[in-house]
Amino acid sequence: MELKLEDDSLHDDVLIQLEALRLAPERPLIVSDADEVIFAFVRSLEGFLIENGNFLDLQSFALSGNIRNSETGEPVSAETVKALIGDFFDQRTEQIEPVEGAADALAALSTQAQILVLSNVPLDRLAARRRALVKHGMDYPLVANIGRKGGAMAYLMARHNAPVFFLDDIPHNIASVARVAAAVTRVHFIADHRLRDLLGAAEDADIRIDDWPGVRRYIETRLRAQGY
Ligand SMILES: [Mg+2]
Predict the structure, then answer these.
(1) Measured in angstroms, how far is the CA atom of residue 137 from the centroid of ligand 1?
(2) Which of 57, 61, 168, 195 is the most exposed place for a label (fewest CB within 10 A)?
(3) Once rounded to an integer, what is the mean pLDDT over residues 199-228?
(4) What is the pTM of this model?
(5) Is there a contact between 131 and 107 (Cβ–Cβ < 8 Å)?
């Protein structure tokens, strides 16, 4: 699917999943991305690439152009990047490692807020991702999003009467939420130490925090200030 630069619409396959959620509108809601926030995507992908004759040479906040063939040292084509990432999701979604502190912070936050994982995992890997969450102590509802995340967040925000928080590593998702669900508190989070140094805070984020104890403190403080 080709995405337009500012396409904040909600895909039908995402809408069906959102409609099936049972959320309490009066209880705060924390919506977290998975890759590079809850799961150590780049670190896990890196191991997979090496096994497949490639390596990651992170020169920018992107995979395209930064995956190189181990023998030639040359960047692989955009098509190959896409195929490798597809293979990674097919073969390793369930084995991916969690980000340090994520499970503990979410468990603590879940005493006063609902947790929802909103991930652009391919739809056919939804069950595998759920198993990975459960395996690492994060048995929370999971929605497989398609495209930018503003559409899903606007849907949730319109049905919610309590504070809503959103965490993601990708600036265009944060921008999308800012455009169509501006009342959501947006946290820009990048778990990988190398990746985080390649990118400043997203322009449309309320705050940049790259560690889970920090996220926990920030959300708890915000909720307290709002009387929760
Ligand atoms: Mg991500």
Answers:
(1) 19
(2) 57
(3) 96
(4) 0.94
(5) no
**C-alpha of residue 227 to centroid of ligand 1, in Å:** 30
Give residue for tokens 């039908």: 12
Rounded distance from Cα 223 to ligand 1 centre (Å)? 24
Count other C-beta atoms under 10 Å from residue 63's C-beta.
Answer: 18
Tell me the pLDDT tens digit for each residue of 53-102.
999 998 888 888 999 999 999 999 999 999 999 999 999 999 999 999 99
The Cα–Cα gap between 55 and 170 comes to: 22
Position 5 confidence tier, pLDDT thresholds 50, 70, 90: low
From ligand 1's centre to the CA of 24, what distance in Å?
25
Which sign does the torsion angle of CA 136, 154, 200, 85 carry?
A: positive
Give the Å distance between the CA of 23 and the centre of ligand 1: 23
Cβ atoms of 106 and 133 within 8 Å: the answer is: no
> How many whole angstroms from 32 Cα to the centroid of ligand 1?
9
Distance 117 CA to ligand 1 centre (A): 11
Contacts 24+ apart (CB under 8 A), 202-210: 202/171, 202/174, 202/175, 203/171, 203/175, 204/171, 204/174, 204/175, 204/177, 204/178, 205/171, 205/174
